[in-house]
Design goal:
7 helices; 221 residues; single chain; alpha+beta
């Protein structure tokens, strides 16, 4: 029977564990890019309008599982470079899963075992579907398929001619076009306009509350 504890576990898995595992997976691309060097690397977290950009991290407004790694050009392009680049996410998830599993088995981690068990499960889950060579959306190969074809043929052999990973510059241009269309629609759509006004009022209320707290005199001890 699905009860309240199961609902809480589902929420924690969907909004904490899965985003963490996905973020660490995308960070795995940095292993290969650090070895062979890439121009303009970026990890995009979430979707929709940008909240802020800090270094290589681009954080979007809508908190979601959708995240990706992009770059413009790899400096030392070779078969080994691409294999290492695409093996990075697999290695990071496997290292995370085996490390936490070992700590659980040795009793080092005893707090919230269910949480850590689920994190290990999803880390192995993503690693499994990265390792097994297969095609995904629109016939795109997954990381395991790319590594397999690189090892066997020295190149990608699928019919999809898109880049291995998206270009950061092209992604930024697409984002700017998307935001122009979004804000234009926001101006003409009364529902979106109301949402924008409510968001502005919440932000102003938060700033006013913060200012009142700062103005309060501190009690002398």
């Amino acid at each position: 029977m699905f009860g309240l504890p199961d609902l809480v576990s589902l929420i924690i898995s969907a909004f904490i564990i899965l985003p963490v595992v996905v973020f660490l997976r995308e960070s795995g691309y940095l292993l290969g890019s650090a070895l062979f060097g890439v121009h303009n690397p970026r990890i995009t977290l979430g979707s929709g309008p940008r909240l802020f950009k800090l270094g290589i991290f681009d954080v979007r407004r809508h908190y979601h599982l959708y995240s990706w790694f992009s770059y413009d050009e790899i400096r030392r392009e070779s078969r080994l470079a691409y294999i290492c680049l695409y093996a990075g996410p697999i290695l990071v998830n496997l290292a995370l899963a085996f490390t936490i599993n070992l700590l659980l088995a040795n009793g080092t981690i005893q707090w919230q075992r269910t949480f850590w068990d689920r994190l290990v499960f999803y880390a192995f889950y993503y690693a499994l579907f990265d390792i097994i060579p297969m095609r995904t959306t629109n016939g795109k190969p997954n990381n395991g398929r790319i590594i397999y074809e690189m090892l066997r043929y020295g190149r990608r052999t699928d019919y999809n001619h898109e880049p291995f990973l998206p270009s950061t510059s092209e992604s930024e241009e697409a984002y700017q076009r998307e935001m122009e269309a979004y804000y234009e629609n926001e101006q003409n759509n009364p529902i979106l306009q109301q949402k924008k006004e409510r968001r502005i009022r919440r932000t102003q209320s938060l700033k006013q509350a913060t200012a009142r707290i700062k103005r309060r005199p501190r009690r002398k001890k």
